[in-house]
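Researcher: I'm preparing a figure for a lab meeting and need a structural model of a single chain. I don't have an experimental structure, so a prediction will have to do for now. The sequence is pasted below. Please return the structure as tokens so I can convert it later.
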Amino acid sequence: MATEIRHKWSFPARFRAGGYGWKSSKLACQRLREAVSEIKKVAKKEPVHGAEGAVRLMEKLWPALEHVDSSSGALGSAVNKTLDDLIPLIIKAPADAKTRDKWLERLWQAMEDDGVDYLGPVGDRWGELCGSTETANQWTEELLPTLRSYWTDPNPGNYFHGTTACLSCQLVAGRYQELLDLLALDRKPFWHYRRYGVEALLAMGRKSEALKYAEASRGLNQPDSTIDKACEEILISSGLHDEAYRRYGLRAAQGNSYLARFRAVAKRYPMIAPEDILTDLIKTTPGEEGKWFATAKDLKLYEFALLLADQSPCEPKTLTRAARDFLETESEFAFGAAMAALRWLNEGWGYEVAGIDVIDAYELALVAAERAHIDDVLDQIRALLDQTKGPGNAFVRQSLARRL
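Model: Understood. Here is the structure written out token by token.
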């Protein structure tokens, strides 16, 4: 009978203890991506062996990265992304009970040795990693006395790294009321723990109580946007879309740009007109109307976009790019965008602006005006520079000296 040939891992050699120095953050992030790619590739064909690789990498994280400068946050983000990718592989792996118990023992030891809590997300999903309610019950019985003693200690201040692991196991084991009673012992509401209480109440079908419980978790240093998101999910799951939108939808929207925030809301509430969503979002950022210019432009609300660009500062390069993109199809809009760019350049706005940026806006205004049959463009530009002598006025005049 042929012997099964297992994949020989490449990543362990790159994650030796102390293998990365103080300035190795970028290299460490790259190695993490490579390791995840290797593990996921193997997991597609051999899920149990892939999960074994995931456990092995988690064991090596702290010893390998201990001396790396993580102050920029890049390494922490890379580790979190690594765990987000690998934890599901372990949860879903069809491993027998003996194999999974060994994984849990190894991961627990890695969590105890972890100096900066890199493996916090592992503890957060410990109940799922257990693979069965029986195993989750066993871990609950082991962890519960320690956690209860910490939370009832008359002199609080101790930290137990197995807190979320215990709460997660109670949730998976279906010990919902016990979980809520345990959380009641915690002296200060802490969302990272109380979110398990929300899940317990939802599992018991008590949605209105779950909503109140989540709201009661607010306080100093608590993540309001995350709580908003949880409350929004509860209302949406109850079919209360209008209430969810009104109370939480706009606040819970996340994105690395204003356009991304709009898209996040629009995706969750397709029954609401995009124009209405945009209007409501603009109201949440008074004094920043110009930053919604790109969103209005994407919705083809050209007049509204120019109105927003006129109300408050807008990045001149964004306006110039819009003028260039719409020169052929919407020449009036292109002209308005180019003039707005000149206005904000004159006011001193713009990131890393050079003379060519001024010239681009100027020439686009001329071409757009010609195509839109707009007269006296040069007079309009001169009037703009004469009427408002902002911080960038001298710079714009110097850039356009030969043309004006």
